[in-house]
Specification:
The chain has 298 residues and is an alpha/beta fold. Helix content is 48%, strand content 13%.
Length: 298
């Protein structure tokens, strides 16, 4: 039986690639994006063309992760049309670049809203349906920056992704007894094939940004170039969407807790192996080892 999939942030990048890869597998995929009739209308048309040309079931749906009413409406539409959601993918996110001090607190709050609070809005709308069904899969698109190399001028984004990853870890244990699996997908620094760097935000405090430029001239350009240089020539963003599609296709109860797709190898996988082992050991020590695996409902 094919899955009913809802993915956030699917207008471009990892999200659009994943929506297409999952539709190609025979799943019914709802590609969530905002401004479907205005700014993202070309993306909606592209998805419709792809669905028609490939004879797959790829549907764009209005979904602004920053607005609870939009989230509720999107989830409600999927449930009304299919009665279930089998796979929920948290992919929506936004990046900013620049010295941390030059960002206002309000900018950091906005970034946290997009990258972290958005997942809570979607979870509160969708998870009751997965829990009631006694099965399902939640995939979180994290970042190798959470535990790997952390170059400067990306601090607000790194902090937000770390918050999202921490939520994913907690949810994994709290959903296990409901039969709902968690997979945390950790991409590295793919500098092409996504719009993260191209559409990144910048500090509101130009004076402070200029002051840092006197000590760190051209640093962001240097970081972007070095990150691009670290990636092998064959590194492509589709590596992430292909891995997500592989995970979704696995039998229930067999999906990995965390996977890394990091051609540049910034060290995140090595650190995560230690952190995840400690998590397993600790839950076992406190008598909660059953939370490490999921037994789907009969």
């Amino acid at each position: 039986m094919s899955n009913i999939v809802l993915i956030t942030g699917a207008s471009s990048g990892f999200g659009a690639l994943t929506a297409r890869a999952l539709a190609d597998q025979g799943n019914t995929v709802y590609a969530g994006m905002r401004q479907t009739t205005t700014r993202n209308a070309p993306q909606v048309q592209a998805a419709a063309d792809y669905s028609r040309e490939r004879n797959v079931d790829l549907r764009s749906i209005e979904l602004d992760v920053n607005a609870q009413e939009s989230v509720d409406a999107a989830v409600g539409q999927v449930i009304a049309e299919h009665g279930r959601i089998d796979v929920l993918i948290h992919n929506a996110g936004h990046m900013v670049t620049g010295p941390v001090e030059a960002f206002t607190p309000e900018q950091l709050a906005e970034l946290y809203n997009v990258n972290v609070l958005s997942t809570q809005r979607v979870n509160r709308a969708a998870l009751p349906h997965l829990r009631a069904a006694g099965h399902g899969l939640v995939i979180w698109v994290s970042s190798s920056s959470v535990k790997g190399g952390t170059p400067p001028y990306l601090g607000p984004y790194f902090a937000a992704k770390a918050g999202m990853d921490s939520l994913a870890v907690s949810y994994a244990a709290e959903l296990a007894r409901w039969g709902v699996e968690t997979s945390i997908v950790v991409p590295g620094s793919f500098t092409s094939g996504t719009n993260h760097f191209a559409h990144s935000g910048h500090p509101a405090d130009g004076a402070t940004e200029a002051a840092y430029e006197t000590k760190y001239p051209g640093l962001m350009d240097q970081v972007a170039k070095k990150l691009a240089d670290l990636a092998p020539a064959d590194a492509d963003a589709s590596m992430v969407s292909d891995e997500i599609a592989r995970i979704v296709a696995l039998p229930a109860g067999r999906r990995p807790y965390r996977v890394h797709i990091d051609p540049a190898d910034d060290g995140s996988e090595e650190v995560s192996q230690v952190a995840d082992r400690i998590r397993r050991d600790f839950l076992t020590r406190v008598g909660l080892a059953d939370l490490l695996t999921v037994t789907p409902a009969e």
